[in-house]
């Protein structure tokens, strides 16, 4: 546990325009964090934090998340080296979402599939019928099969 | 209902690297949507969509959400005029998050508090103690009290 304290939720005005961080967690105690590249602004990934992950992130300056699938703390980059140094954390009007502006260490990729951003596909827009995806990032930064073996 | 069809979830490889849109909804049937400015890349807001809101967004090219507080469909800008024209929709590796690249009509603000972005405050970083917020957007686009009266 760290020493950083978040304030209890206040009234609407205090939450929306005040100067105290009063995070609103969902039923699972999590808040969504949108991670962007500090320089380009590109959205790299979306993660989730509980209060302690947010405290660790603020205290250490490196991004910690709560893994919903593994149900445990997850320091991004601990195995991959893709550690996120956090330059700025923003919150929105109702304080139920965060934006983290980061720079990525290691090979510079964020996605475990090998791309710079997890958002490497766009929806193509048919008038009707099956919605399809198309890659917007042409090249992967690395091939995870070569680095980690088939998974 | 529209005619656009989303595919059933497939195996890990199909979801993560395939070319079919297979959205993963949470327990409430929602998927998170990160909304960015089409030109600057700035994160403007975070919203939630159910399958039908996503279909309407793809079909009409304007952003529809599901309001968790009002439990109903919400076409952004219907009352404020801050309609979002959607230029691109991205999805991430596990297809449980979306990025919408939009341009904003009306007065160009997205936040109901009057700012261009809902993320108009940053967390200041104490070593310990109470986490505080500081405005990063100096000027509001408009004063909602003047437009809509006190609320």
Automatic annotation (TrEMBL), chains A, B:
Its main location: cytoplasm. InterPro entries: PRA-CH, PRib_AMP_CycHydrolase_dom, PRib_AMP_CycHydrolase_sf. Keywords: Amino-acid biosynthesis, Cytoplasm, Histidine biosynthesis, Hydrolase, Magnesium, Metal-binding, Zinc. Its cofactor is Zn(2+); Mg(2+). Zn(2+) binds at residues 93, 111, 118. Mg(2+) binds at residues 92, 94, 96. GO terms for molecular function: phosphoribosyl-AMP cyclohydrolase activity. Pathway: Amino-acid biosynthesis; L-histidine biosynthesis; L-histidine from 5-phospho-alpha-D-ribose 1-diphosphate: step 3/9. The keyword Hydrolase applies. Residues 45-120 form the Phosphoribosyl-AMP cyclohydrolase domain. It is an enzyme of class 3 (hydrolase). The keyword Magnesium applies. It catalyses: 1-(5-phospho-beta-D-ribosyl)-5'-AMP + H2O = 1-(5-phospho-beta-D-ribosyl)-5-[(5-phospho-beta-D-ribosylamino)methylideneamino]imidazole-4-carboxamide. Binds 1 zinc ion per subunit. Homodimer. NCBIfam families: PRK00051.1. Belongs to the PRA-CH family. This is Phosphoribosyl-AMP cyclohydrolase. It comes from Roseibium porphyridii. The gene is hisI.
